[in-house]
Amino acid sequence: MNHRILITGSSGLVGSALARELEGRGADVLGFDLRERGGARGDIRQCAEVAAAVADVSGVVHLAAVSRVLWGERDPEGCWSTNVDGTRNVLDAAAKSPRKPWVISASSREVYGQPAVLPASEDTPLRPVNIYGRSKVEGERLVEQARRAGVRACTVRFSNVFGATTDHADRVVPAFARAAVAGGELRVDGADHTFDFTFIGDVARGVASLVDLLATGAAPPPPIHFVSGRPTTLAELAALAIQLAGTTATIAHASPRDFDVARFVGDGARARRLLDWQPRVALREGLHQLIRALRDQHEPAGPAARWEGGR
After folding, report:
1. How far is CA 304 from CA 168, 181, 286, 301, in A?
2. For residues 272 and 98, what is the distance between their CA atoms, to the nearest angstrom?
């Protein structure tokens, strides 16, 4: 690979891992993030900043977003302006750039809301139940609109990506891992809620494989899941975290929130077929790696940790 690629949201969980993966494949990676360190600091809501960043690249992986369900509930306008208007800015900049870069735009399992049938395929109806999910559906609509207008744009959908110590401490996997390591209390909001947890290294490898495909000049594919295809309840996740940590941590159960999806498991057949991709790191192994990394960093958590939702 010998391409210049822009990653929006390059300081985030997926952006950081993807940058390393692409650089390992020989790409020249440019970062663009409100928190960017060592790259370009920028805001996808600002048209001029986005246009300047996109002007001299061959492709864009658009990850920048309000990426938490809870944050969307707290600030609906900010969620919409970032996830929808920001995505529009990226696609408009790509359309106007003389280099005509391809665009990969990140979406989420939240676009489905509560699927009637599991595992959900990429053709499952989009019925979001919260502002974050609705913003992602609108972002996907903009991608499809841009594709019809000639931009080589496509969508990827993530599900509960985990595995880095730099992840938001109140997301479910790092929250449980930190509390388990500290021997504290793991608060489970909806013990039977079931999700598809996908290791960050697998996700970065999958997106990089899609980058490789687009770099050959191939037509942009339809939306693609990067999922494990394995269901895990929050109660099972909490118990596994405590088992792997080997501490006396406890579990406290609480009622779920009304804006949370209760169940999701994804079908990864399309990624296997189009990209020869499938996950390599199971939840148990990935969680074990995370717990070990937290201990290596000497980052004891407080006496309790609470999941605050989001993918």
Report:
1. 15, 11, 22, 8
2. 33
Can you give the pLDDT at residue 196? Answer: 98
Q: Where would I find the H helices in the chain?
A: 13-24, 47-54, 69-74, 76-80, 86-96, 131-148, 172-182, 200-215, 234-245, 269-275, 283-296
Residues 232, 239: Cα–Cα separation, whole Å: 11
Q: Which residues contact 23 (CB under 8 A, 6 or more apart)?
A: 29
Q: Which of 65, 286, 246 is nearest to 165 (CA)?
A: 286
- Give the mean pLDDT of 265-280: 98
CA distance 63 to 82: 11
What CATH number does residue 183 fall under?
3.90.25.10
pLDDT at residue 92 tops 80: yes
Token pair listed for 213: 């495909």
The number of distinct structural domains making up the chain is: 2
Specify the CATH number for the domain of residue 144: 3.40.50.720
Residues 6+ apart with CB under 8 A from 200: 13, 14, 17, 161, 162, 163, 164, 286
From first CA to last CA, the distance across the chain in angstroms is: 30
292 and 239 share a domain?
Answer: yes
**3-state secondary structure at position 171:** coil
Asked if residues 162 and 199 have their Cβ atoms less than 8 Å apart, the reply is yes
Contact 153, 270 (CB under 8 A): no
Evaluate whether 252 touches 190 at the Cβ level (below 8 Å): no
